[in-house]
Amino acid sequence: MSGAQISDGVAMASCPKGQQNATIIAAQVADMLINIDHVEASFTFYYLADDCIGVSARSKGEINVQLVMEALGGGGHRTVAGAQLRGRTLAEAQGDVMAALHEIIDKDKEIDEK
Fold first, then answer.
1. Backbone φ and ψ of 3, nearest 5°
2. What is the band of 2 on the pLDDT scale with cuts at 50, 70, 90?
3. Checking DSSP bridges between strand 10-14 and strand 5-7, what pairing results, if any?
4. What is the mean pLDDT of residues 5-29?
């Protein structure tokens, strides 16, 4: 959690490579990050296999993390979701999530403007 970055209401953190129980820890960190004031969505990244990065996503409800994770081949619910990104580095996975997030936010803005 200490290395989490927060920008524009989105918190991102990552578990170090080789972390035991990374899936559980990532989910717990995502839960903790979403409870920070002014954070609307949190994404925690963790290593699964040599070529796979896991993502645990949480939202207070304003941002639909299910749609973000579905755009990357994952799924879940509006406020709790996840994905596994194969063949991606940690930095690439973070970039993919941010790109999908911005696409979802932009679509929501277009709908609101109509």
1. -95, 10
2. low
3. antiparallel
4. 94
Q: What is the mean pLDDT of residues 45-52?
A: 90
State residue 30's pLDDT score: 97
Beta strands 52-59 and 80-86, pairing class: antiparallel
Q: Which of 94, 80, 73 is nearest to 13 (CA)?
A: 94
Among 6, 99, 88, 86, residue whose Cα is nearest residue 44: 6
The structure tokens 């063949």 sit at: 87
Report the percentage of the chain scoring pLDDT > 70. Answer: 93
Instruction: Centre a 10 Å sphere on the Cβ of residue 95 and count the other Cβ atoms it contains.
Output: 12
pTM over 0.85: yes
| Among 79, 30, 78, CA closest to 54 | 30
| Phi (first) and psi of residue 21, to 5 degrees | 55, 35
Where is 112: in which H helix or E strand? Answer: helix 90-113
CA–CA separation, 92 and 14 (whole Å): 13
